[in-house]
Amino acid sequence: MPETALVWFRRDLRLTDNPALQQALACCERVIPVYIHAPDEEHPWQPGAASRWWLHYSLTALAEGLEGRGSRLTVAEGDSIATLRRLIRETGASRCLWNRLYEPALVERDTRIKQALRADGVRCDSFSASMLLEPWQVKTGAGEPYRVFTPYWRRCLPQLADIGTPLPAPPTLPAVPDEVASLPVDALGLLPRIPWDQGLRATWQPGERGATARLNAFIAGPITKYGDGREYPGEPGTSALSPHLHWGEISPRQIVHAIGAHGLADNADAAKYIRELGWRDFSHQLLYHFPGTPLAPLDPKFAAFPWREDADGALLRAWQHGHTGIPIVDAGMRELWHSGWMHNRVRMIVSSLLTKNLRLPWQQGAHWFWDTLVDADLASNTQGWQWSAGSGADAAPYFRIFNPVRQGERFDPEGTYVRRWCPELAKLPDKVIHQPWATDPTLLGQSGPRLGRDYPVPVVDLKQSRAEALAAYERIKPAKD
Predict the structure, then answer these.
(1) 42, 77, 231, 344: which one is catalytic?
(2) Choosing from 276, 409, 424, 468, which is the catalytic residue?
(3) Range(s) for CATH 1.10.579.10 in the chain?
(4) Catalytic residue among 8, 370, 385, 387
(5) Using 50, 70 and 90 to split pLDDT, how confident is the model at 19?
């Protein structure tokens, strides 16, 4: 009887550079690709609404790719171990293979499943497919995980030469027996019932083909100006590969290899982009070694930080909906709602306003991003919000507070980004578009909105709230600081 393997797809929704799939093909005559929808097993970080949207189309693209090679995706819903055991019984599979995930709940689940299936006599193997380096590979000289990025990345660089070359996509795959039942992807109910997703559909092409197109477009243009270009939200200076990376439609190894194949291995701007892939790895190693950080500060003194009371939630809602009266912030939050994504520079600006000027807990911002981002990655989301709050892995010897007006003037000097997402401000001159409240009312009346009616007045005084945030930090700051 031919040996059968189950390949359990999770967030590795691609056929290229998929080590679990390649190993299954190398050792077994029959290979059955499986996806199990079990969001409760990710509690309390089940995929948010934007992530579910992406997952629907990514699974659809994976299914089409498998069918084009003679196979098909077996889709199931429910408890993962029960489903795998059922499929093993039905197919006679002797092996189960998957690529690793690193979120705390999923590490625990996968360990439990591997032990259970091995006890059943099924050979289980897992593989590295989504990181440049595994979270446990890079440690300090004392054998501890790094908490500061620069020395972490310095230790990583010599090891990158050993990450290997991407595995090719198989040209054909074995057929899945007809008796192996599958749900249609639609049955998972991932798409919104109310069609709020028009902007997402206009912006993204989920799936391996979309990831490859994004990478090729980035290498063909923006990557050679990435060092400076990534800072300007009104320009196409970033790769926008983060959702494709999160869902495993492309691997970091593929990206690094493609950069080298295009003769950019020694390009300084390309090196800065690869460093950003290193930040992604760094975030995952922090989450792996400090699993409580999605809810608790990495720096324990921030557990006592005096956050503001927002009893009716008005400040949070103004921030969420892009109605703070701070143009660069409102533009970012509206971009997020429309497209499920936000430029990284603007992510830092909006999160600084929430945690420093509004002084609302960073966890509230992290939860909003979790529901609205198509690239909602627990490790990167946690690291980004803790960095913004000042409670995470950061070598800065001071309490960082961004001035959103200065940030807008510096990185959106002509107001291109603000005008796109806040059209009510479109007619304002460049020199005042980032702080319309400080503008001559006569000028506003001629070319701009009426504050408080057409566009909000600021929900917070930036100078006063900055002073209050610094005073709040002094209350938790150790004397030795």
Answers:
(1) 344
(2) 276
(3) 300-476
(4) 385
(5) very high
Q: Residue 448: exposed, middle, or buried by beta-carbon count in 10 A (0-12, 13-18, 19+)?
A: buried
Residue-level pLDDT at 435: 96
pTM over 0.90: yes
Specify the domain boundaries for CATH 3.40.50.620 within the chain. Answer: 4-129
13 pLDDT exceeds 50? yes
Sort residue 347 into left (φ over 0), alpha (ψ -120 to 50) or beta. alpha
Please confirm, yes or no, whether 279 is among the known catalytic residues: yes
Token pair listed for 61: 């693209």
Distance CA 81, CA 87 (A): 10
Q: Is 319 a catalytic residue?
A: no
Q: For this structure, is 247 an active site residue?
A: no
What are the tens digits of pLDDT across the range 294-311?
A: 999 999 999 999 999 999
Q: Please, where in the chain does CATH 1.25.40.80 lie?
A: 131-165+207-289
> Strand (E) positions, 13-132?
30-37, 74-77, 95-99, 123-127
Q: Could you confirm whether domain 131-165+207-289 is CATH 3.40.50.300?
A: no
Annotated active-site residue in 362, 370, 387, 437 = 362
Query: Is 4-129 a CATH 3.40.50.620 domain?
Result: yes
Mean pLDDT score of the chain: 96
Measured CA to CA, the distance from residue 167 to residue 146 in angstroms comes to 30
Those residues whose C-beta lies under 8 Å from the C-beta of residue 478, and which sit 6 or more positions away, are: 301
Q: What is the DSSP letter of 451?
A: B
- Given the residues 3, 235, 307, 403, the one annotated as active site: 307
DSSP string, 236-273: --S---HHHHHTTSS-HHHHHHHHHHTT-TT-HHHHHH
Rounded to whole angstroms, the Cα distance separating 425 from 447 reads: 9
Confidence category of residue 449, pLDDT binned at 50, 70, 90:
confident
For residue 444, the model assigns a pLDDT of 67
Mean pLDDT for 131-155 is 96
Structure tokens at 129: 């497919």
387 has pLDDT over 80 = yes
From the CB of residue 82, how many other CB atoms can be counted at a distance below 10 Å?
12
What are 172-191's pLDDT values in tens digits?
999 999 999 999 999 999 99
Q: Of the listed 64, 279, 403, 424, which one is catalytic?
A: 279
Alpha-carbon span 165 to 261, nearest angstrom: 11
Class of domain 300-476: mainly alpha
